[in-house]
Design brief:
alpha/beta; eight-stranded mixed barrel; about 45% helix; about 20% strand
Length: about 550
């Protein structure tokens, strides 16, 4: 709203009436700051029916106005016409514009900007928790950095990501998840100082701007103390709608100016540190290091190559024999995913499979592996089984049963020859949903195996919930049997458990004759490892079945 700049008010009744009926609140002041005229809008806004004759300071004091920003009294502002100031009138925010009149004195107009400012604030506020949103965080960070540039005050940016939140959301529903997020937000507020900024960026992602003293003596110690406090506080048990919930938090920290002098760089570097914290086990914090940039670039390059590999069909399968201990015969193969990059060479599955899971490519890769393995097995001369690993990601979306059904129909493989291997990780995310999928797969006639058995906390409980066809004993126990009585006891217990439940047991990672003898003595039914057969190309696996089932090495029998 532009300030008025008009001659002193004429005395004509018609013009005075027009001023009185103006929709804009208006006061006219003499050179000393005494009110000579007030229209009806101004009287209503200031809750003063007859302000004329009052000095402006007295009027403002009478209506409870807080001290204006910059002041609006004529004697204080003669050198800065026109002048705009903001007043607080009760619960209203008002902008006042003061302009000189050519005949002396001043015109003072008001505009109620309460809703406008509240709307601007809401546009920078996240509605679920009341914290800053991403836009608000960026604005506050820009302002904090501008202030820090003048005062040399350090500041830290912390990026946070909740651990295990998705499992809560999926199993108990979004209302419980939302209530949990509000409780987390409250704990973040309590963990920070009044001058810090806490924001929710979306989902279970949060961020904090932590200021610091001008001396800089508290950084990075202050940021580290806050990160430790957050890991401890957020990780404590929550009670939401009668549910006892446990989530953790991973934290990444970047410091200004060492890690960046602008908002974009600081947020990016804090995010890289967060990625490192999550990769190193979650429930911890990491500070940004310059090497993380190079590592992220390498990761992005690998991601691009991984997407290209799927499009160009650069993947292959290797087949590792599974031997029945009682007869020494090959009873099946496990299909193992391989990627031989044209420039990188062989890429370790331990490197590219977690990345494929993270970016969602594992669904397409897994479907390709399943179809290829089933097609190869359908052409074998012996009815050996084919085992294919399933990623936890493949259980999401509700299409896995349909996919397996279509692959079996397309390849003509007998469903009884297909074994699908899952790890405990698949069951951790949403047990009931995964069990529904497993029952659907079982209805197709396929076999279900639990891989890496014994490494998780709930393996035994899952055996009660679903009748697995096979238990695969993790290779860490097999390798530890030589010289470690505890590993031998674990293998023995799993073998006996499998026998009592009618489940086959396969010992993985057998590499020595001593291990093989121990496995046989403990009662396992099958063995798989380098001693009895390394992963081999499809043609070699097919050829192994042509003459007769392979026998165990003579020196190991």
């Amino acid at each position: 709203m532009s300030a008025l700049a008009a001659p002193s008010p004429p005395a004509t009744p018609s013009f005075a009436a027009a001023l009185a009926e103006m929709a804009v609140p208006l006061l006219l002041l003499d050179a000393a700051g005494t009110i000579t005229f007030a229209n009806a809008c101004a009287a209503a806004l200031l809750a003063c029916p007859a302000p004329a004759g009052l000095p402006l300071p007295a009027l403002l004091a009478a209506c409870g106005a807080a001290e204006p920003e910059g002041g609006i009294l004529p004697e204080a502002l003669r050198a800065a016409w026109p002048v705009r100031s903001r007043l607080t009138l009760g619960d209203r925010l008002v902008e006042a514009a003061l302009a000189p009149l050519s005949s002396g004195g001043f015109a003072l107009t008001f505009e109620d900007v309460t809703e406008l400012l509240r709307g601007a604030a809401l546009a920078r506020q996240e509605p679920l928790t009341g914290l800053c949103n991403r836009v608000g965080l960026h604005d506050r960070l820009d302002a904090a950095l501008a202030e820090a540039a003048h005062s040399d005050a350090p500041l830290a940016v912390l990026m946070l990501d909740l651990d295990r939140f998705k499992a809560v959301n999926d199993t108990l529903g979004h209302p419980v998840g939302d209530a949990l997020l509000r409780k987390v937000a409250e704990r973040l507020r309590k963990a920070t100082r009044s001058g810090d900024v806490v924001a929710r960026l979306g989902g279970d992602e949060f961020a904090i701007i932590q200021g610091g003293p001008s001396s800089g003596a508290e950084q990075p110690q202050a940021a580290e103390a806050l990160a430790r406090r957050l890991v401890d506080l957020v990780g404590r048990t929550y009670v939401v709608d009668g549910h006892m919930l446990n989530v953790g938090v991973s934290v990444g920290v970047a410091l200004s100016p060492a890690d960046g002098r602008n908002a974009d760089d600081l947020l990016k570097h804090a995010d890289l540190a967060l990625y490192r914290a999550k990769a190193e086990g979650r429930g911890t914090y990491r500070f940004f290091e310059p090497a993380m940039n190079a590592q992220m670039q390498a990761r992005r390059s690998l991601e691009i190559d991984l997407r290209r590999a799927l499009a160009l069909k650069q993947f292959d399968l290797a087949f590792q024999p599974q031997i029945q201990l009682e007869t020494g015969q090959v009873v099946g193969f496990e299909a193992l995913l391989r990627w031989n990059h044209p420039e990188r060479g062989p890429v370790s599955p331990a490197l590219f499979i977690p990345l494929a899971e993270e970016i969602g490519l594992i669904v397409g890769i897994g479907e390709w592996a399943l179809r290829t393995a089933c097609r190869e097995a359908a052409g074998w001369t012996q009815p050996a089984s084919i085992a294919v690993n399933l990623s936890p990601v493949q259980f999401r979306g509700g299409r896995l049963v349909e996919t397996v059904m279509h692959v079996l129909a397309q390849t003509g493989l007998d469903p009884a020859r297909l074994e699908l291997e899952i790890t405990e990780g698949a069951l951790l995310e949403n047990t009931d949903s995964v069990l529904d999928v497993l029952n659907g797969l079982r209805a197709l006639g396929v076999k279900i195996s639990m891989d890496d058995f014994g490494t998780g906390y709930s393996s035994l409980s899952y055996l009660q919930k679903f009748p697995f066809d096979k238990i695969k004993i993790d290779q860490s126990f097999v390798r530890g049997m030589e010289g470690n009585a505890e590993c031998g006891a674990i293998v023995r217990a799993i073998a006996r458990l499998g026998a009592s439940l009618g489940m086959r047991t396969t010992a993985e990672g057998v590499e020595t004759a001593t291990q093989l003898d121990a496995i046989r003595a403990e009662g396992c039914t099958e063995v798989q490892g380098y001693l009895t057969g390394r992963p081999m190309p499809a043609a070699q696996a097919a050829a192994l079945l042509i003459p007769s089932p392979a026998a165990l090495p003579a020196d190991a029998a």
